[in-house]
Amino acid sequence: MVDSVNNTGLNNNYYWQEETTPEANDNGKLSQEDFFSLLTEQLSNQDPTKPVDNDQMIAQMTQFTMADSLSQLNDKFDSFAASMTSNQALQASSLIGQNVLVQGNQGVLEEGGNISGMVITDQASHSMKITIENSYGETIKVIPVGDHAAGNIEFNWDGTDQNGNVVPPGKYSVKANATVGGESTDLVTAMHRHVDSVSLASSSQGIILNLQGEQSIKLADVLEIGS
């Protein structure tokens, strides 16, 4: 085993929709025609000594038009939002069983498997090393990476300790450190994680990916698909 680092059917429940008449659908709604009928009735019954001011009449018509337009816009937006959620859910479902790259330092080692990810840096780094720790915070292995130019660096841990012995499956932490600009610096890491399932959360959270190792993330947090 070698650690590597690279720069780089038919449904019987039928349903018939009941026919509805336009009168039933429009019941309780005030149309623009109704508004003008009411306005005409108001003008015919107004006090001759106190006629409706032209500006007031225009303001009433403007308010009605704006209210009607906003109502139609809200209906269209709700329909658009529902469509977007459905499309996102369909796209996210295709990620089940795949690996995604997400920011973090936690990885899950399967029996006979490995843990891979990426060190994220936009500066040149020197004497970089990657440290593998178990769930108790004990150092399992230190992988010397050396010097690298600016840019993300891919890594792969084969699941063995410092002596080459295979470690048991479970959760492990990956930490990267290097000398950047003359100072010892902890670098940001991202891990490849397996997607177990997809959840439709509330509208504020959107689509949720449930990863192997009992971790959940938002679809928007995925940096890359595939490993």
Descriptive account of the structure:
The chain has 227 residues and is α+β, with helices and mostly antiparallel strands. Helix content is 25%, strand content 37%. The chain has helices spanning 22-25, 32-44, 54-93, and strands at 4-7, 99-103, 106-109, 115-120, 125-133, 139-148, 153-157, 170-180, 183-200, 207-211, 215-218, 222-225. The chain starts with a strand and ends with a strand.
Low-confidence region ranges: 9-20
Which structural class should the secondary elements be placed in?
alpha+beta
Tell me the number of helical segments per DSSP (H or I, 4 or more residues long): 3
Head-to-tail CA distance between termini: 18 Å
| Rough outline | elongated
Secondary structure: helix percent: 25-40%
Q: What's the SSE pattern?
A: EHHHEEEEEEEEEEE
Number of E strands: 12
* Cα gyration radius (Å): 31 Å
Q: Hey, roughly how much beta strand do the residues contain?
A: 35-45%
Strand count, sense and barrel status of the largest sheet are: 12 strands, antiparallel
Mean pLDDT: 78
Helix-strand layout with pairing:
Layout: E1 4-7, H1 22-25, H2 32-44, H3 54-93, E2 99-103, E3 106-109, E4 115-120, E5 125-133, E6 139-148, E7 153-157, E8 170-180, E9 183-200, E10 207-211, E11 215-218, E12 222-225
Antiparallel strand pairs: 1-7, 2-9, 2-12, 3-8, 4-7, 4-9, 5-6, 5-8, 8-9, 9-10, 10-11
